[in-house]
Design a protein that fits this description.
Elements lengths: L2 H27 L2 H27 L14 H29 L7 H28 L3 H30 L4 H28 L6 H14 L5 E10 L2 E10 L5 H18 L3 E9 L8 E2 L2
Parallel strand pairs: 2-3
Antiparallel strand pairs: 1-2, 1-4
Length: 295
């Protein structure tokens, strides 16, 4: 089990504990907003389990039926998580609508707020860690899970404000109204997650800064070649596929050109985590004079 899978399992365990705290807060107060927040946290646990399953699949090596590996499984997980966020938001909106029609008084609001605040603090700390690790490890599944937890933190912040305002003012309808407003924000978060994951499934290119690093590495480590052109990239989970045409002098031997390719592959794979490099060698007359010059 690698580090990303361990993080996904830890996310499920922490999510279960946080969900328990939030249901306790709802039980203490009877607050519709707190109940809706607890429902959203159940989705967090389910999403973390999906992320773990996707990471297990993505870690499998390439085989005859999947020669390029199973990396895209992480994007499927992120799409599912985004959809689950939207489902959770719709559940909250339904509860909020019913609450507007029939507002209910709250029991022990201060104690409920304290318990929910503890759960929110745990979620915020974990989301920050998960987002940093997910980006550092180039894991779409962990980044999606972190964003899901962040959406839960936003939900909880709105809910805590609503319950506090109800306790301070006695205006019961504020409880479901604020829950509904937070749910709309969660819908947007889920949509962004689905949109970004679909881009990955459509073989979106590496970000500009990474593409610039790749071109610089080709220029710096391609001594002996003339140029590189048609540099292409695509992301698939934790892997970044990179391919390009390398132009060498026509009289260069196969071994000499192969040595340059080995040097380039080692440099790129050493700098770009998860890089998978494919190089097509061409003779000098194929130079386009508009590719990456080699210095």
């Amino acid at each position: 089990m690698d580090r990303t899978q361990k993080a996904a399992l830890a996310s499920a365990a922490i999510g279960a504990g946080v969900t328990g705290l939030k249901f306790t807060a709802w039980w203490l107060t009877g607050s519709l907003a707190l109940y809706s927040d607890a429902l959203e946290s159940i989705i967090n646990v389910v999403a973390a389990i999906f992320a773990f399953a996707a990471l297990r699949i993505a870690a499998q090596p390439a085989d005859a039926e999947h020669p390029y590996g199973h990396h895209k499984a992480e994007f499927f997980s992120a799409v599912v998580e985004g959809a689950l966020i939207i489902v959770a938001a719709l559940l909250i909106l339904r509860e909020a609508f019913e609450g507007v029609l029939a507002p209910q008084p709250l029991d022990a609001p201060l104690l409920g707020v304290a318990v929910n605040a503890l759960a929110t603090a745990i979620n915020l700390a974990w989301a920050s860690f998960l987002l940093r690790r997910g980006r550092a490890w180039s894991s779409p599944a962990l980044v999606a899970d972190a964003r899901h937890v962040i959406a839960d933190v936003v939900t909880s912040g709105g809910v805590l404000l609503g319950v506090a305002l109800v306790a301070a003012t006695g205006v019961l309808i504020l409880d479901p109204i604020i829950a509904g407003l937070v749910a709309l924000n969660i819908v947007w978060s889920g949509w962004v997650m689905v949109r970004d994951s679909v881009s990955g499934l459509m073989d979106k290119a590496a970000p500009p800064e990474m593409a610039g690093r790749i071109r610089a590495l080709i220029s710096d480590h391609g001594a002996g070649a003339l140029e590189a052109h048609d540099v292409r990239t695509r992301h698939a989970g934790q892997a970044t596929f990179i391919d390009f045409h390398l132009v060498v002098p026509g009289e260069m031997t196969v071994k000499e050109s192969h040595d340059i390719c080995d040097r380039l592959e080692a440099a790129i794979e050493g700098e770009i985590q998860g890089a998978v490099v494919v190089i097509h060698v061409e003779p000098g007359e194929h130079a386009k004079q508009r590719g990456v010059p080699v210095v």
